[in-house]
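Listing S7. Sequence submitted for prediction.
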Amino acid sequence: MFYRDQLEHINDPDFQVRVYGNEEEKVWLSRDADFATTEPAEMPELAGNLPLGRLQMGFLVSAEEFKANARTVEINWAQFNFTMLIADPLDLWREKEAATTRRSRPQDIIHSEFLGLTLQWEMAYYAGRVARGELSVHSWLSRSNEVKTRYRSILNHPKLRDRLLAVNVPDITNFAQGAAPS
């Protein structure tokens, strides 16, 4: 839900969260992806009347790997500040792709599709930061190669390719066109 809220708030015209129908919204809000912990004994079974599921880790990434790659996020909600670890969208995407193959649950398909959109937006956003001199091309290439290694078809999305080519940075252009970086 964090990444969905983030993309909706950003409202990037190229990477829009699609409108889900009522049945898809129910599937979207499946219990498995919203709460995960590396300490399962510490996680409650209920939040009010809402049963909490546990992220089914372990198809591709262990709990330790999730934690090592997690992002620290600070959120203000109802006048309280929270600091939490949010799983990297690439790790979540990989797990959802594996779950789609192994379980074929409807929520896995929707979540995987959305996490792919999140990864596309991030790649385009950070390419723009490279073009503005706010991020090194080496850092961008390192992360983008990691994403492309796991999400092989990411560059098949025309809006992403167009955004990468538009930044007019030779290493990013080569990456978008499939050439090895200089």
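Caption to Listing S7: primary sequence and predicted structure tokens for the chain studied. Residues 120 and 160 are 6 Å apart (CA to CA). DSSP finds eight helices and four strands in the chain.
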